[in-house]
Amino acid sequence: xxxxxxxxxxxxxxxxxxxxxxxxxxxxxxxxxxxxxxxxxxxxxxxxxxxxxxxxxxxxxxxxxxxxxxxxxxxxxxxxxxxxxxxxxxxxxxxxxxxxxxxxxxxxxxxxxxxxxxxxxxxxxxxxxxxxxxxxxxxxxxxxxxxxxxxxxxxxxxxxxxxxxxxxxxxxxxxxxxxxxxxxxxxxxxxxxxxxxxxxxxxxxxxxxxxxxxxxxxxxxxxxxxxxxxxxxxxxxxxxxxxxxxxxxxxxxxxxxxxxxxxxxxxxxxxxxxxxxxxxxxxxxxxxxxxxxxxx
Length: 296
Ligand code: F6P
Ligand code: MN
Hints:
Elements: H1 3-6, H2 12-29, E1 38-42, E2 48-50, H3 51-67, E3 70-75, E4 82-83, E5 90-98, E6 109-117, E7 129-135, E8 139-144, E9 149-154, E10 160-164, E11 174-177, H4 186-197, E12 201-202, H5 208-218, E13 221-224, H6 237-250, E14 254-256, E15 276-279, H7 281-292
Parallel strand pairs: 3-5, 11-12, 11-13
Antiparallel strand pairs: 1-2, 3-4, 5-6, 6-7, 7-8, 8-9, 9-10, 13-15, 14-15
6-O-phosphono-beta-D-fructofuranose binds next to loops.
């Protein structure tokens, strides 16, 4: 089944926006070879932009502006929310190319999208849907519109076709722990030690979207925690935590900042950073319980 058929019953603005993003991502997937260099600019977070980061950002913004379906657009590569002429009220968040520091070593990277109505700066639980496109050996698109999580694969004819419907996160003993162990907060360290004692194996590639994709399919947990001297951590609530957390939660998992669901947090700005835990309910309950007991 094609992506367009799978989306047939949804509100046309949301459906057509997802199909537009899918088309643009096919274009992005074909643009890697000629755009592998670093640019001489940094984004608002001080990260060196790759030529591909800037290009993916531009083509997604242009295509979504021209679609006339999107009113608000926030991108990780832009300092402010963009507002377009549109009859509709869709709000889109974009991490145009997550994990882009891995382009030079040919590991999987991806595009992460959150879908809102009526604005963007609201808790993630207000999202109407989310999706990500992973550019790996296969190009896959995984979406939820709150009726299950479904995955499509780009086939030889350039179509996204259904690969797996109604994905549920299994139990699994994998963990993807970001940042430096010497900077862990006490509660986080206790949790990591509990996972290690329980036989969890490390799987951390440096591409958030690819690492969470693996957890969605194999179980376990991804984390980029708050740290000593940097309690908000590194990753962004709007562009990374909320869309991927929303998808994994919809697949039967959970997401947290270590105390409560990421999806309950009111963002204070588009650049809001947050400690991130995404994975199975068991692992997420464990970190929240450890922190409640006061190991901080
Ligand atoms: O977008 C930020 C990001 O590249 C994520 O994809 C990844 O999980 C993280 O940063 C890696 O951070 P670090 O370089 O500190 O391991
Ligand atoms: Mn990112």
